[in-house]
Amino acid sequence: MGRRAAEPGKSGAILDTFTRHVAEKGYDGTSFSGVANELGISQGLIVHHYGTKARLLEALHISYMRQRIDEAERIMSAFPTPSEQLAGLLHASILYQVVDRNRTVAFQREVARFAQQEENSEGRKLRRHYIGMLHGLLDAGIAAGEFRPVDIGIRSLLIFGAAQWAWTWFEPGRRGAAERVGAELVDLTLGSLLIDRTSLPHLSDPAGPLVATVIKIIPAAVGAPKELPDG
User: Fold this and answer.
1) Is 80 exceeded by the pLDDT of residue 218?
2) What are the chain's domains?
3) What burial letters (b/e) apply to 77-104, b meaning 16+ CB within 10 Å?
4) Can you tell me the distance from the alpha carbon of 191 to that of 206, in angstroms, rounded to the nearest whole number?
5) CA dist., res. 219 & res. 175, Å (int)
6) Cα–Cα distance, 204 to 172 (Å, whole number)
7) Of the four, 12, 20, 99, 113, which is 20 to 30 A from 30 by CA?
8) How far apart are CA 91 and CA 65, in angstroms?
9) Counting beta carbons within 10 angstroms of the beta carbon of residue 149, is it exposed (0 to 12), middle (13 to 18) or buried (19 or more)?
10) At which residues is the DNA-binding region annotated (predicted)?
């Protein structure tokens, strides 16, 4: 499920088309002329809204991370325990490959480029905020006696990075594939964290109520994106 199509001359339609081109061809293979030709608009209109190609990529980055943070907050509020909350985020990280594929692939293709941005850029701040949420989850799980003590900083980065290369091998269109891959990621990650692993089958079950809840949350978040102001 994706966002409703915007009018060709609107900034949202420009960003959506640019995002799909980046997902398909990468940033270096994407051009204003290609986006403009597809939408039937002038390159000058793209410049009017966003200025430069780099700013358009940054808009993609910011939009994506705002969405993921909003979604993470929804998921965390839906479950009472740190282990369920973390399992929900892990399942979602793979489901993105289906419900928000273009933006997810575009983000993942260029994640190394995003890491080169200035420390005080909004995109970097948003990524740090998301990592901070993972820090908090791990802290809470350790404090509650659910998780064994680990290096929270390193573990959070490993969790965040675990799904970042999924775009290179994940095959969309296979029924249940995202749920099964998410189940394996939960089993791998929480299996190494939980002190008592009796809850692991519930947390990783690809057809269970936890995944069903996450699936309901993701389209709601994707369907109501926080729009960026025109550049």
Assistant:
1) yes
2) 67-100+119-222 (1.10.357.10)
3) eebeebbbbbbbbbbbbbbbbbbbbbbb
4) 15
5) 17
6) 20
7) 99
8) 17
9) exposed
10) 31-50
- In which region does residue 6 sit, left (phi positive, over 0), alpha (psi from -120 to 50) or beta (all else)? beta
Rounded-to-integer distance, Cα 82 and Cα 76, Å: 8
* pLDDT of res. 231: 35
Collapsed DSSP state (helix, strand, coil) of residue 174: coil
pLDDT at 12: 87
Mean pLDDT for the chain?
88
- How far is 55 from 194, CA to CA, in rounded Å? 42
Compute the distance between CA of residue 228 and CA of residue 66 in angstroms, rounded to an integer.
Answer: 10
Q: Are 93 and 182 in contact (CB under 8 A)?
A: yes
In the three-class reduction of DSSP (H, G, I as helix; E, B as strand; rest coil), residue 147 is classed as strand
Look-up of token digits 């594939």: 177
One-letter amino acid at 166 equals: A
Q: Which of 218, 216, 217, 188 has its CA nearest to residue 203? A: 188
